[in-house]
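Good day; I would like, with your permission, to put a structural problem before you. I would ask you to consider whether the tokens describe a fold that such a sequence might reasonably adopt. The full record is reproduced below for your convenience:
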Amino acid sequence: MNALNILLIENETAGQLLEKILIDQGYSITNTAKSKTSIPSLAANSNADLVIFNIDSPIKYLQYIHSLNLDHPLPIIIFATDDAPDTINQIVNVGVSAYVVNGLEAGRINSIITIAMARFKEQQRLKIELEKTKSKLEERKSIDRAKGILIKTRGFTEDDAYHTLRKLAMDRNIAIGEMAKNVIAMAELLK
């Protein structure tokens, strides 16, 4: 169960307590880093399942955390001492899965990791769902625009324009959204 590979990022003042706790709990530490500049390359070159930061304040790490979330999305847990509301808001905005203030206790590690992994999976599911919804909306806009072109140039009714788009798409074995883009592109070309 604990066979997760962890990329551990600690500031220079942190001891090896967290690393020892994680190993004792059965987790595997793939890499440890003391320098924030090596975070993106470590994440890219490791087979980490999650990233844990053990730092005083995450403020100077925000850029690296944001890059990490964009380039190599992984669950991120931060153990810190900074409980300022502004810091917490910034941490939430960069997509951290769990932020624990002054709570580095061996007995809580498993539950913190489990919750962070679940939260990350849910965030990824929502992100994918949002992208699908945006894509469908863009397709719908293209179809409506293509229908408008057919109505204006060919004198079709809205129903006739839709059925024509659909038939053209089926005849060419492409999606109706793709056919709509083709109609729009052709109309632009013929302007």
User: Anything to note?
Assistant: Residues 5-104 form a domain with the Rossmann fold fold (CATH 3.40.50.2300). The longest helix spans residues 109-154. DSSP finds seven helices and five strands in the chain.
